[in-house]
Amino acid sequence: MVTINVKELYGDQAKLNKLPEYIKQAQELAGQGQDITLTGPGPVWLYLAVAHALHGKARSLRYDSPVTGPVVIFDHNPY
């Protein structure tokens, strides 16, 4: 299981013009075929872009926050 804190991708303030950098960082952290959890504060557009970029790379993707708890976004685990 790999946990990516979205806040750590962008630091103080997320900037749309840096989106390709954030996606690259997330993909490097995610690796290939892993179970990924996204967490931490961040703009919705960043969460959506990262989730889209990890589809096809990650085996499963979850979102986790203190409010929702873990939420499955997708799960391609054959078991």
Task: Name some characteristics of this structure.
79 residues, alpha/beta, single chain
Largest sheet: 4 strands, mixed
Report how far apart the termini are.
16 Å
Strand content: 25-35%
User: Number of helix segments?
Assistant: 3
Order of helices and strands: EHHEHEE
The low-confidence parts are none
pLDDT averaged over residues: 96
- Helical fraction: 25-40%
Number of strands: 4
Q: What is Rg?
A: 12 Å
**How many domains?**
1
Structural class: alpha/beta
Major sheet: arrangement of strands: 1-2-3-4
Shape: globular
Question: Topology, please?
Answer:
Layout: E1 2-5, H1 6-10, H2 19-30, E2 35-39, H3 44-54, E3 60-65, E4 69-75
Parallel strand pairs: 1-2, 2-3
Antiparallel strand pairs: 3-4
Helix pairs in contact: 2-3
In short:
This protein is of the alpha/beta class.
